Structure prediction request, 647 residues.
Amino acid sequence: MNHQQKLEAYRRMLRIRRFEEEGTRLFKTGRIPGAYHSSIGQEAAIVGACLALREDDAMTGTHRSHGHPIGKGAKLNGLMAELFGKETGICKGRGGSMHLADSSVGIIGESAIVGGGIPLATGCGLSAKVRCTDKVALCFFGDGAVNQGTFHESLNMASLWKLPVIYLCENNGYAISTSLKLSHGQLSIAMRAHSYGMPGVAVDGQDVLAVHREVSAAVLRARRGEGPTLIEAKTYRFDEHNVGLIIPGTPYRQPEEVAEYRANYDPIALFKQVLLSEGVGTGVIEAIEAEVDAAVTEAIDFAERSPLPDRATLHDYLYGSPLDQSVDRPM
Amino acid sequence: MTYLEAVVQAQIEEMDRDERVILMGEDLAVYGDEKVVRRFDATRIWSTPISETSFTGVGIGAAITGLRPIVSLGIASFMYLASDQIINQAAKLRYMTGGQIRVPIVFRSCMYYASSIAAQHSDRPYPLFMNVPGLKIICPTSPADIKGLLKSAVRDDDPVLIFEDTKFWSQKGPVPSDPERLVPIGKAEVKRAGTDVTIVAIAGAMRPVLEAAKALAEDKISVEIVDPRTLKPLDMDTIIRSVAKTGRIVLVENAHRLLNVSAEIAAHLAEEAFDYLKRPIVRLSAPDVHVPFSPPLEGLMFPGKEQIIAAVKRLL
Prediction:
């Protein structure tokens, strides 16, 4: 990464962090409905990968969707309004928290079906190949998704057809409450790549520069027609699976473990140290921090001021090609 | 030409016309698409591993990013593997993204039954998918209709499921040669005009219905045959217009009785055409039991010409 990209990396990671902190607060006070799956702690894995892409590259993600569009450079207003269910939301209030898809930054979907986006990203790769573009597709999924059949089938096809896809696993150690030890017959996610005949690498997901390096190398391979790569980014989720989730019984992860990660493996704190040690002035960093705070405040204000969808629009966005008659007949 | 030849011709014409149309599926040349496979190169023809769930999703992802895939799911019983991607992705993504993306994809599913291939090869799954918003579903019964509707499906910007009844594959019929001649999705057709009883024939049921109509005509009974052609959206206007004329209706289909298309049509008629009905609505369908292997048992499953004739006569 060059200097400007590093500042942008810090900016985007911080945007995710502040967006999630404020979003969590608003969720707890009832301003945001539904379920809130925070990406706090996983910012480096997301941003390092996104910055290795071009603006026109495609992307798919998961129910833990907020970090992905922010990482890819989306504006915050439409994302926050979507969380509020407003008409001005990026998905017109039809998707909500688990589906913050912003197609203007290349995201074609954020699927709440675990593993559901993996074939879709693979299809983006196939499309690029057929249309002879050098676009690539970045596919985000978690450690739980690698046990879905879609992971197995999609990676096989991507390897068979040398599709330009980067499969990026945000391995945060737990699928809700289930650790890898309790669900994986073989603990290395990266090694699964070998069964499909593609490269697989594990990387420190809390190191934004390391993630960026690996994803960039994979992107280069993909653009050259050399096919897909599986990247396992070892990261950590600081908050609960979804905000407010209480899991009874023995904690699946010890409070000491969470505290250890928060204290010593915060990707933003770590990168801030890197920037400072490279001579970036504290003034520059503070300016970015102020800018991000202002953007988040503005997004919340925009969301609060925006209207909710009109009931007359209930049937909108269902079909693209017009029908000569409506599917639903009036009562 | 035959129904299957019309399927092939429609695909070739649409693939010639628009380079974004690609074909995906297993063993494509073996199950009817040999001509298509020979005509186009490897960028247009994607022979897939046995991975229905995911190659369906691959097609959807490709559709979102600039292509117009035809995904051949083969024997209809195998399409359940593709259900999650069809329902949770193809049907929902346009809506859930507030219209940001579109999914111009076609799924071909071929219904085999009454051929001693047992329950896991003999499904008629279209009723399950009718309950999903965001899909369009067609079941043409003639070569001209399959050609025109397949073309419309390819040009449609939404996900379209085509259910072909393989009993039609070898049947011949006139087919327009004009490659711009389309059959619109959502429009039923009166296949035979009549005055005494309306028969709605769904997909493969059209064959015994046509035979029954001929036999009934010899008894001076005039039946009007309505072919919905599209299941979703269902053209109730055409069906109701026919019931307004005849006052009597028999709904015939090969899907299992519970919650099939006939059930939906019957509910609509009860809601909207009650005053036109002179007699109760009659449904003939497969019973709620699996398709058996043994031929005498399998022969009990699907409404035949005699059953249809008897049902019509009971209404008069």
In short: The domain at 3-313 of chain A is CATH 3.40.50.970 (Rossmann fold).
